[in-house]
Amino acid sequence: MQPETLETIIQWPDPVSGGLEGMTSDKVPTEIQYVNEGYKWGFHIPDVAPRHHWFKLGLDSSQSVSSSDLANQYPDTKAALSDSTQTPEMLTIDFLTAIRKHAEIVLEQKLPASVYSTTSIEYIIAVPAVWSEAAQAKTRTCAEKAGLGEGTALHIISEPEAAAVYSMHIMDPHGIRTGDTFVLCDAGGGTVDLISYRVTRLKPILQVKEVVPGSGSQCGSTFLNRIFQRFLIDKLGGLSSWDDEVLEEAMKKFESTVKRAFTGSAEEEYQILVPGLSDSPSLGVRRGRFLLTGSDVRAIFEPVVKEVKAHVMRQVDATETQGFSVKTVLLVGGFGQSAYLRDSIRQMVAPKGIQVLQSLNGWTAVVRGALMKRLASAVSDYSVVKISGRSARKYYGAIISKTFNADVHDIEKRFWNPYNGMYQVHVMDWFIKKGDTIVEQKPKRLEYFTECLVSDGRPRTIGVNINKYLNAFSAVPPLYEDGKSS
User: pLDDT tens, 208-237?
Assistant: First the structure.
């Protein structure tokens, strides 16, 4: 098997028959709607119907769905109210169960029965770059409850890391040199994730390592839909024939055409179906169509594009702070295929001599790269791109005792150590610092000792708690466990 032969599922269930003759798309919306007979998911849900989405972010308490300015300015008007049973975990389990069942139907139709029944299946789940360890553990638990394997049959991988594996593999090898540094921007529907990589080796396989910790935020293309919906309601909502059906038709046109085709020109025009609305020349409505101008679309795009650009520039600046010059910004993800987003970022970074490229198969780069990485770990011959080092996203440390120093330590925290007859103080030993390079499968060896009385006998166990600390890249971690520095 070669990576080029990887196939993605692009056929989704028909809302009525449940067969594979429904919507054809590289991706399916991560959305779920509970109804009397169970639930609908993905493309089954009507455009204006209330639904649960972004629920996966609830698996990480540090990634609140209202943690971005865009989320606060443009709240989700279609969000369904959750009862006590509809937790992020339960929503995730139900959605993953639906995905698994659909994948099984597709495989049964594409593979001979004898092959399918004897083939072991593994599952790989890609998560955002900023996902915490706790969120990854919750994701794994939900996946196991949804029937997506367990133990070594279930794998978790970072979304931008998976995208990097695929995108670097298909790039022109003659244009890559050792020492090249690039920023990968995975711009999707809900979130935008960024990671910076530096090429460390070209042969026998391409190797890259993270330069600075990844970052991300909720500023994906979903907000374009929300802004367009608000624009349309403000513009046409006062007309007598306006209703949810008109809005649903308009949203379909915006999602399928306008979002994907817009290039940024004020001269562009789009005809939006608004069936049933009376002609209104002053509002641009004629014969059941509303004229959406390029200037209108640009105003819709601008708040979201501005936010993405800010995150890209922060990642570029953080990379340059470490002494590396960024050569390329590589765009993947559905929103990453937008010509307007590409050109806007290109204009921003042009003074720095940075080129902006869009990855081939950008919509599915993450899933393709995730599968390639798993194949490489199972069979070395399939390895084409290797992540040789990752940048620590947090500080990790343990509490140790040090001799009290009045010039450094808080006198109220000192204690008398009867074993050595000295004043000591408990402080944090941050043995991994944010930004340190972490090499996979290469453990960090630490040496500590503890004192105990001989009369107490040999200690059976010695335990130590590992603390973690996340803060701004330039900040200094606290000296003490309580978060204080002095």
Answer: 899 988 888 889 999 999 999 999 999 999
> Is residue 472's pLDDT more than 80?
no
Q: Beta strands 326-332 and 385-391: pairing type?
A: unpaired
Per-residue confidence band for 362, with pLDDT thresholds at 50, 70 and 90: confident
Q: Whole-angstrom Cα distance, residue 125 to residue 132? A: 15
Q: Are 154 and 299 in contact (CB under 8 A)?
A: no
Q: Which of 203, 125, 194, 206 is nearest to 391 (CA)?
A: 194
In sequence order, what DSSP letters do the residues of 386-454 get, joined into one string?
Answer: EEEEEE-SSEEEEEEEEE--TTTS-GGGEEEETTTTEEEEEEEEEEE-TT-EE-TT-PPP--------G
Question: pTM, whole model, 2 decimals?
Answer: 0.83
DSSP letter assigned to residue 43: G
DSSP secondary structure, 178-244, as one string:
TT-EEEEEEE-SS-EEEEEEEEEE-SSSEEEEESS--EEES-STHHHHHHHHHHHHHHHTTSTT--H
Rounded Cα–Cα distance for residues 355 and 249 (Å) = 38
Closest CA to 426 of 462, 402, 452: 402
